[in-house]
């Protein structure tokens, strides 16, 4: 409101109004998601914090227990699991790229799963999910859970992405990344 009267070009003023409106809307959505998650007292299993964004976290459970709960919720589906972090450019790009898979496959037979690959601030993580509308299942692992997940679930040490078949088994072959789209689509279709 301070600078708005000084702008002579109507189009620039409209653009600023639109940007301000988007920022306020994003802020309201992230605050609502934070309030919803805070009300769970630190334990959420598949809680929908925004449309299509499901969060699983529990400081008192093991990483394998959280993963098993996620597998039960998505029984009969092929899962594409992504280890990422919003703190790194590669992680943000990877998380955004795999969203295309949601448009390619039916939600009845396929699900995206995101796992934080680093110890990051939970509030900043949640804000990034909601602001960028990263739809899918999101597992937040705390420090000890993250190290446990790498030691008890060997497939998680292979790389940033994993495929889990309909029966809940990690595939031994490393799945393709989104930059090799035809190969990735072929790998997923073989499991459907």
Helix and strand topology:
Elements: H1 10-38, E1 43-50, E2 53-58, H2 63-73, E3 78-84, H3 89-97, H4 100-104, E4 110-116, H5 122-131, E5 136-139, H6 143-152, E6 161-164, H7 181-191
Parallel strand pairs: 2-5, 3-4, 4-5
Antiparallel strand pairs: 1-2, 3-6
Helix pairs in contact: 1-5
Task: Describe the structure in your own words.
This protein is α/β, with parallel strands linked by helices and 192 residues long. The protein is built from seven helices and six strands, in the order αββαβααβαβαβα. It has helices at 10-38, 63-73, 89-97, 100-104, 122-131, 143-152, 181-191; strands at residues 43-50, 53-58, 78-84, 110-116, 136-139, 161-164. Strands 1-2-5-4-3-6 form a six-stranded mixed β-sheet, sandwiched between helices. It is globular. The model has no long low-confidence stretch (mean pLDDT 83).
